[in-house]
Structure formats: C-alpha cells, structure tokens
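@channel sequence for tomorrow's demo:
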Amino acid sequence: MSTIAPLRTRTSAYGALVFMSLVSVLPLIWVWLTSLRNSQDIAEDPLGLPWPPDFSSYTRAWTEARFGDYLLNSVIVAVGTVLLITIVAVPAAYALATLRLPFSTPVFVLFLVGLMIPIWSIVIPLFFQLRDLGLVNTRTGAILIEAALGLPFGIFLLRAFLREMPNELLEAARMDGAGHIKTMLYIVVPLARPALYTLFVFQFMWSWNELVIPLFFLQDDAVRTLPIGLTFFQGRFTSDTAVLAAGTTMAALPVLVVYLIFNRQFVNGLTAGATK
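structure tokens (generated this afternoon):
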C-alpha cells in the first residue's frame, strides 16, 4: 500500500499536466494548421488537415497587410524596452541591495507602488506629456513609457536576487580596490545572469503583447506594433481565415523562440535562492 499510494499520486499529477498541456497546445496547433490551408478548404472542413500545405497566406499577410512593418516595430520597441530597463534596473537594484543608503527602504517601497498603478489611470496625462515632448507616434515614446512601467518589476526581481549574494564576494572586491562600478560590472552582473535572463524573458513577452500603450501612443500606421496591427489586420481579413491564422502564427513565433532559447536560464532565474 505504501508503494501504490505514491504511484497513484504521481500518475494523477502527470495526467493533469498532460491534460493541461494538451488544452494549451492544441489551439495553437489548430491555428498553425489552419494557416497552411486556403479559405475554401477551411469553410468546407474546419478541422481538416492541410494537404498539400499552402503557404500563400503567409505571403499575403507579409505583403498586403504590412505585417513586416508591424513585426519590425514590435522588435524595436520590445528590445529597446528590455535594454533600457536592464540598464537602469541593475544599478538601482545594486544600490538598494548592497549599499547602506539612507531611506533605501522607503525608496524601494516607492518603486513597488509602480506595480500597483494601472496604466489606464495615467494614460491621459502621459499622452499630454509625450505630446508636448513631440514623442507621440514615435517608437522612442513607446519605449520610454514601457520601460518606466516595467522598471519597478525589474528592480524588485534583481534586488531580491542580489540580496542572496554572499557579502564576502563584494567585500573581497572592495578590499582589492574595486569601486562600486567595477564591482557591479565584473562581480554582480556575471553572477546575476539567471535573474537577468528571467527579466529579459518577462519584459520581452510583456512588451511584445502590450496593447494599451501602442493603442494610445502609436496611432500612425507606420509605427504600429503587432498587437495593434493584428486588430486592424483582423478587421480587414475577417473573412479570410487562412490569412488571419498566418498573421497570428507569425505574431506568436518570436515570443516562442525567445522562450525556447532562454528556457533553462529562465527557470534557473525563477528558482535561484529557493533552497538557500
């Protein structure tokens, strides 16, 4: 009996995981298979298999719907947001986690308040501020806003990781004559790579799927990102299910690739310090 009970528990757990995986993956597979068919075949048999595969929907989505422009804009905004958050969050987290600064705890709490403010409550004053600065309908403006909104989470994540680092390493670096900048660049940053990878994946996925900021601040078709482009794309090609499925597949592919590349580092960053 002592052996059967754990076996049943593991079987139930694995069965639940398999079921949830199928529930999550099967719709994505159906969209991908639909993108390889034409609209007539889809109308006749929505669940049929694409044979022979038809890739013309991807060509139409890329050319007729300006999907390439939307994709480029999303890459620029997402990568720029992640880089700006990292550049600002690393020294801020280093100072809050390792230096004995006055009012460091209230300052950290003030950063955490940024996690509680919904974007809808500040979007109107932000719009007027960016309009006065001439940054509406510019990718730079979208990067600045998304970086400002993602910075509190970046500081929170990195500070929690850096507080688990042994103080002996930092003290040894200081005894060797290294200043705070050298200590941060040559000691802290290499050791904090798991947390930085986690931050990169989180912020990239959030920026890539962000809808509110591009909706208000990127109104020109030349600078629209994929989430906004897909809304117009859906309205234009509502009757062409294959083209719409092709656009959705291409929109999800970059996020999937980023996660697969940084999957191991992402998990290590989430679990770092869990057993300390």
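heads up for whoever presents: The chain has one domain: 68-271.
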